[in-house]
Amino acid sequence: MKKIAFIIAILFPIVFTSCKKDRFDNPDKTPENMEQLTVPSSFDWKTTKDIQLTLSASASGIVEVTNSQGIVYQKAFLSPGQAYLMKLTVPTYEKSVKLKFMGQEAILELGTASLNYSFN
Predict the structure, then answer these.
(1) Angle 75-81-85 (CA atoms, 0-180°, nearest 5)?
(2) Which of 18, 35, 73, 83 is the most buried (most CB within 10 A)?
(3) Is 109 helix (H, G, I), strand (E, B) or coil?
(4) CATH of domain 48-118
């Protein structure tokens, strides 16, 4: 009986000390509110960007402006000989849009705030 009590007395502290979680002090404190954030002055907080798109075509028809997954941002009716000016608002992560007009497809890179495209 003394042996069992002795073994329990030895094993008890070993078992409970091995179950301790390692606690590390995190030197990077997470901000608790917006005033504590450190944000560069060049960051503009915008989630969208505006693109001015000028489209023209040699025939009448409907043009679709979509993203790479095929989600339509905007549709417009193009008339021959008349330029159509479109203000397009897209998410900032979009790098290109796809134009579809009468079986033609074109991909425009969104590098500048003003883009032109002419369908043949």
Answers:
(1) 40
(2) 73
(3) strand
(4) 2.60.40
Instruction: Fill in the amino acid letter for 113.
Output: A
Residues 78-116: pLDDT tens digits? 999 899 999 999 999 999 999 999 999 999 999 999 999
Predicted model pTM: 0.64
In the numeric block, the tokens 């000016």 are attached to 85
Closest to 84 measured CA to CA, from 96, 74, 93, 94: 74
On whether the CB atoms of residues 96 and 65 are closer than 8 A, the answer is no
Alpha-carbon gap, residue 66 to 99, rounded angstroms: 7
Q: What residue has token string 């005033």? A: 35
Q: Where are the domains of the chain?
A: 48-118
Residue type, 64: E
Q: Residue 61: left if φ>0, alpha if ψ -120 to 50, beta else—which one? A: left
Beta carbons within 8 Å of 70's beta carbon, 6+ residues apart: 98
